[in-house]
Amino acid sequence: MVKAMGIDVGSTTVKVVVIDKNKKILFKHIENTKPRIKEQVKEVIGKVKERFKGEDIPIISTGYGRKLVEEAKKSMTEITCHAKGIYYALNTTGTLIDIGGQDSKVIVVEKYGRVLDFTMNDKCSAGTGRFLENTAARMDIPVEKIGEIALKSEKEVKISSTCTVFAESEIISLLAYGEEIGSILKGLHRGLITRIVGMINSVAFTPPLMLSGGVAKNRAIKEMLEEETGYSIKMPEHPQLIGAYGAAIISLEQNI
Amino acid sequence: MAAHSMVYLKGMINLKKRSEIIKKFKAEGGQIAAIAPYHYPKALFRAFNILPVELWGPPKLNTLESKSHIQTYICSVVHSILTFHLKGNLSVCDYILIPHTCDSLQGLGSIFLDFIKPEQKAFTLYIPRGRRQVDIDFLSKEIEKIYNELQKATGTTPDKNELNHHIETEEQAVSMVKKLIKNRAYLNTDDYTFYKTIRSKEYLPAEDFIEIAEEFYKTYKIDTPLNKKPVILSGLLPEPMEILNVINEKDGLVAGDDFATTGRRLYPKSEGQNPFVRMAKSIVHSPPDSSRGDSVEARLNHLIHITEKTGAKGVIFFIVKFCEMEYFYLPHLRKGLSEKGIKSIVIDTDINDELSQQTITRIEVFMETLK
Predict the structure, then answer these.
(1) Which residues of chain A make contact with B358, given a CB cutoff of 8 A?
(2) Which end of chain A is more exposed for a tag (fewer CB within 10 A), N or C?
């Protein structure tokens, strides 16, 4: 039976997807990225091969560690893979926002999951998952809870620093002045969303808006993005797996 | 004709290092002129037995010295030239020429003349922004002024015949660059090797360059074109040069360029008997160029022309950070290209930085989007 594998080696997590010829996900796996990526990837792929014993499944790698996947027949950028993955996951063209650990991307996706336009925030960690992670750590709150806490807050404190490092200092000052954690977190989310909206405005925006990446699991991001843009946002079932899913589809399409 | 798909032949031409060329030229009684970017009358210097060696940085330099003297928002080419001098590396040169290419280079010219006052004779050269007869007249006077200065400095007086001889040799070297670029798809080598070779014209005597370019052509020429995705590069210079490897690894080929180092200096052949006018005419009639203040329309038409001629699928604007004259045109050029269905991307770099992973990803995405 024809199968294809996509592996997305991101800065925060490694994602693997195996699909069948109908693009149906047969297997999925996510784990945190370790410092020795090459070895980690070998191990992960070994486990998948064990699961699909005797089958020769072609692999396409993506993500910032894509070139470290020796078993891959080809590597593709995460932008191309996300575009492909979201198109088939949601069955629509549109504008995809992918907020990853290391960078954020806004991708205009056309028919068949082709990239029409894109922009990346890659020169600074403000506007990425790392921005939220760092500040959550500074406040001693698990990152998966910050969205809920932010949404519960009525008040919102404006965070003026556009840099992750300076934002951390600003948060310390705000806490020292007795500001509530929830209102600080709401302000932080607003800061990130504002940067993303700036990126949306710089591409050839086509509705609907779609969201992928690890940060998509944060409910506050989705709700505040909808509030800021006025568009409702479509979410795939597995937002974190979209890159790996797209890589697997490309592998299938190109018959590598 | 069938498309050619083969493994690139790399590094088969032996290019001597810039320092070796300088040493040899000086040992044979010649002198050296350091030339800042980028239009200048090369033949004029050669007529005085002076080898012009161009200063495009050098790249990948730690520019700590210049940062204490000039603003950090001045481009890295200017920072590198100043640092290179402050480190004492220009002491091998007998002359320094700083053309008024942009405000930053004009500023650098003033710094050299008014504050640094180097041991070497330093000149500036004002390149007029227009393409009219009056601009040719003005530039020929500027060139004649430098001739007079060099005459005083060297004690020699090259005559009209000598000047015209060197003009023709330089024109032959330019013709060789044109031939190589025109035949790019039929030269089985990677873009790094290709640009390393054509850019050796920045420091080689024209006669040596012609010989190397001919050998290069013979070595790499194939009968069927390379089966690669052609793209056009635009900007000042391909630095860091690793960008070329990224394009090739994504199955791309630089089919032509609008670089200040190469494409914008494919001067037309000159006519007439007055060597100063000939040199001025060549520069004034160079291809459309941001430093010449050409209209958006002229630059756009030129880019569309080279894109269509080479069958290129897209244009990569490879911009040196803070280069105002390049940035100014970009929105108009990109809009015009897009209207013609030509994709484009802007990549900004600092010539002293390594190519970042993020930049590599941007270029790779662009190459992946080209059909």
Answers:
(1) 103, 120, 122-123
(2) N
B364 to chain A: which residues are within 8 Å by CB? 77
Q: Are the beta carbons of B365 and A64 separated by less than 8 Å?
A: no
| 3-class DSSP assignment, residue A217 | helix
Within a domain: B353: no
What band does B306 get if pLDDT is binned at 50, 70 and 90?
A: very high
Closest by Cα among B252, B235, B264 to B312 = B252
B4 pLDDT higher than 70: no
Domain count, chain B: 1
pLDDT at A73: 94
My answer on whether omega of the bond before A208 falls inside 30° of 0, hence cis, is yes
A:B CB pairs within 8 Å: 27
Helices and strands, number each (H, E), in chain A: 8, 10
Q: Provide CB contacts within 8 A for A18, sequence distance 6+.
A: A3, A4, A5, A25, A26, A27, A28, A48, A52, A57, A248
- Find the CATH number of the domain harbouring B28: 3.40.50.11890
Q: Is the pLDDT of residue A127 over 70?
A: no
pLDDT at B3: 46
Per-residue model confidence (pLDDT) at position A69: 95
Give the pLDDT band (50/70/90) at residue A125: low
How far A37 CA lies from chain B's nearest CA (Å)?
16
Angle of helix A129-138 relative to helix A164-176, nearest 10 degrees? 30
> Could you tell me the residue range of the domain that residue B121 belongs to?
18-157
Contacts of A115 in chain B (CB under 8 A): 365, 368-369
What CA–CA distances, in Å, run from A218 to A101, A143, B110, B132?
13, 9, 56, 62
Provide the residue ranges of all domains of chain A, joining segments of one domain with +: 3-123+196-254
Residue with the two structure tokens 């999925």: A28
Report the C-alpha gap between B107 and B59 in whole angstroms: 20
CB-based contact, A79 to chain B, within 8 Å? yes
Q: What residues have CB less than 8 Å from A238, skipping those under 6 apart?
A: A25, A28, A89, A245
Q: Over the stretch B110-121, which tens digit does the pLDDT of each residue have? A: 999 999 999 999
Pull the structure tokens for residue A156: 């919102």
More confident residue, A171 or B323: B323
Q: Please, which pLDDT band fits residue B2 given cuts at 50, 70 and 90?
A: very low
Decide if B277 is inside a domain. no
CA of A205 vs chain B CAs: smallest distance (Å): 15
Q: Which two tokens stand for residue A147?
A: 């969205």
Nearest CA in chain A to B361: A77
- Nearest chain A Cα distance for residue B361, angstroms: 6
Among residues B40, B68, B225, B255, which one has the least CA distance to residue B139? B40
First-to-last C-alpha distance (Å) of chain A? 15
**Contact, A246 vs A63, CB < 8 A?**
no
pLDDT at A131 exceeding the cut of 90? no
In the CATH hierarchy, which fold is given to the domain comprising A3-123+196-254? Answer: Nucleotidyltransferase; domain 5 (3.30.420)
The reported pLDDT for the residue numbered B6 is 53
Q: What is the pLDDT of residue A162?
A: 63
Of A64, A79, A123, the CB nearest to B365: A79
